[in-house]
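Help: read this over?
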Amino acid sequence: MTKEEAEKNKANLEEADLEKADLRGANLEEADLWEADLEKADLRGANLEEADLEKADLEGANLRGANLEKADLEGANLEGANIWEDDVKEADLRGANLMEADLT
């Protein structure tokens, strides 16, 4: 899947295989990424505002500078992910795995 295909408004990417995808700066606002595989994906600067990332696999993903305002990350796997603490302040992280995540 290309970055352009993923950027479609309110894109339905349920269970999509986006492992190691380069999605830097992508506009994924309100995208449905439920159970998507985003392991080791590069999401630096991506707009994920109000995106559904429930149960998504973001292990080792780079989310530095990504907009996760009001994103649903309930039950998501963020193990070893790089993410700024400020970027997830309004996100739903209930049940998310943050083991070894870099929040600095």
The two ends are 31 Å apart (CA to CA). The chain has a mean pLDDT of 92. Residues 1-104 form a domain with the Pectate Lyase C-like fold (CATH 2.160.20.80). Helices lie at 3-6.
